[in-house]
């Protein structure tokens, strides 16, 4: 549970009833937010990272009767 917003004033977790703070007065765990959009922008601007993120299935060749990739399934074959 995240003790922010509507839950900021709570003293204990509403799910497991554990106290928000440990005996030393600090939160048990902390989550550090890393904004997704700036990370994606940096990755796409990098030629190396953009190349590494390309789907490797473009080099994939389908063998009839064998499923070795997500796109080898019968449902996907019906879609194309």
How many strands, which pairing sense, and closed or not: the largest β-sheet? none
Average pLDDT number:
85
- Structural class category: mainly alpha
**Could you tell me the strand content as a percent range?**
under 5%
Indicate the overall shape. elongated
Summed up, the domain count is 2
Which regions have little confidence, pLDDT < 50, spanning 5+ residues?
none
Please give the alpha-carbon distance between the first and last residues. 43 Å
Compute the number of strand runs.
Answer: 0
> Percentage of helical residues?
25-40%
What order do the helices and strands follow?
Answer: HHH
Number of helices: 3
- In angstroms, what is the radius of gyration? 23 Å
Overview features:
single chain; 3 helices; elongated; 29% helix; mainly alpha; 80 residues; 2 domains
Overview of this protein structure:
The protein has 80 residues and is mainly alpha-helical. The protein folds into two domains: 1-33, no CATH class; 36-79, no CATH class. The longest helix is centred in the middle third of the chain and has 10 residues, at 36-45. The protein has helices at 36-45, 47-53, 74-79. The model has no long low-confidence stretch (mean pLDDT 85). The chain is built from three helices and no strands.
Short description:
The chain has helices at residues 36-45, 47-53, 74-79.
Task: Spell out the blueprint of helices and strands.
Blueprint: H1 36-45, H2 47-53, H3 74-79
């Amino acid at each position: 549970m995240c003790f922010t917003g509507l839950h900021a004033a709570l003293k204990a977790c509403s799910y497991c009833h554990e106290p928000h703070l440990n005996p030393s007065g600090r939160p048990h765990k902390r989550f550090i937010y890393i904004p997704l959009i700036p990370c994606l922008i940096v990755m796409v601007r990098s030629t190396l990272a953009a190349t590494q993120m390309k789907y490797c299935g473009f080099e994939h060749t389908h063998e009839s009767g064998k499923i070795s990739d997500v796109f080898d399934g019968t449902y996907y074959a019906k879609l194309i």
